[in-house]
Amino acid sequence: MKVVVYGPYKRTGALVDANVIDLSYACAKYLREKANETSPLEMAEALVPSNLARLIEGGARAIENAQKAIDYVSSQAQNKLGPNGERVVYPAGDVKLHAPRPDNARTACAGGNFADHAAAMAIKMRGKPYEGDPADAIRKAGIWGFWKMQREFCGPDDELIYPARCNRLDYEGEIAVVLGKRGVDLKQSQIKDYVWGVTILADWSIRGWNEPGGGSLNFAIPKNFDTSTSLGPCIAVGETDPDDTFCETLVNGERRQYFSSKDMVLSFGEYLEYLSRDFTLFPGDIISGGTAAGTAADSSALLPDRTSAPERFLKAGDVVEMKSPAIGTLRTRVVAKKK
After folding, report:
1. pLDDT band at residue 277, thresholds of 50, 70 and 90?
2. Rg (the chain; Cα; Å)
3. What stretches of the chain adopt beta strand conformation (E)?
4. What structural domains does the chain harbor?
5. Which one of 78, 117, 150, 229 is least enclosed by Cβ atoms within 10 Å?
6. pLDDT digit string (tens) for 78-121?
7. 3 — alpha (psi -120 to 50), left (phi > 0) or beta?
C-alpha cells in the first residue's frame, strides 16, 4: 500500500493506479454498505484513522482494514461516495500531496554510510583516499549522523528555498524507514518488527558557506534550514524490502545518483540499535540510511583554493527528481529566497 497525506486537511489516503483513495472514508463506505454499521464515520475513524500518526499507531490491523476498504471501493464502477456523500476517490493530479510525516516525528539521518560516496568525500576533505576497503573504514569509524530539526518537511512538487548563507547547495537522495512501534534498547535483529514503511528522503545540504566555521556540522546547521528536507511522495507499506530498495536522483533530467539501500554499509537494524540506547523511539519516527555517490560535493572538481567547482551544485530554477519504482517520484524545484 502506498500511503499518502493529501488535501487541505492532511488526511490519509492511498495511491491506487492514478487515484488517491481516502482511507477513512473508504472504510466508512465499506462499513455502511457491507456491515450495516449505524455509525460508519466514527467507527472508520477508530479502525482506519484519517490522521497519519494515528494510522501508524494502529499497526497491522489498521492497514488490513484499509486494504479491505480499498479493495471494496476499487471493485465498484459507480457510487464512489461515502455514507454521507463524502468524496472517496480523487484523480492524483487533482490533489495536493504533503510530506508523509506525522506531527512530532523525529528524523535521524545516517552520515557517510555508502562506501562510494564516503571514499570520494574522503579524497575531497582529506586530500587522500582511504587505506584499504572504504566499507571497512566506515565500520571502524563507527556510526555517526545528525537529526533533522525543522517542524515542516517539504512534500512532492514543493519548492526548495535557496539559503542566503549558502554558495554551494547539494542534493542527497536517500531511502528512509518509518517506524511503526514504540521501543527502547532495541536490537538490530528486531528491525523487521519495527519498520512500518519505506519512503524517499531528500537531504538538501549546504556545502559552501559565507560565514566563518560554516563547513562543520556544528549544531547540524548545514542540514537544517527552512525547506532543508523533502519526503515522499508516499510511504510504501509492505511493498518493498527496506534493505533493498532502489533510488535514483536526476537534476534537470540528468541522472546523478543510482543506488539501492542494499549498498548501505551499516544497516537500518544497526542504526535502530544505536539510536534506541537509553532513548525511546516512537511510531512515526524516521531513520534515513544516507546517500550514495553522485552528489555535487563528491563528484565536482576541486578548485585551487580547495573549494568545489560550482557547476554541479543546485541553482534557482533547477528541478530535482528522486525516483524509486516502489515509492514514486519526489520532485522539487529550487527557488531563490525572497528579499
Report:
1. very high
2. 21
3. 2-6, 11-16, 19-22, 89-91, 97-98, 107-110, 145-148, 158-161, 166-170, 173-179, 195-203, 205-209, 229-236, 246-251, 254-260, 286-288, 319-324, 328-335
4. 2-98 (2.30.30.230), 107-335 (3.90.850.10)
5. 78
6. 778 999 999 999 999 999 999 999 989 999 999 999 999 988 88
7. beta
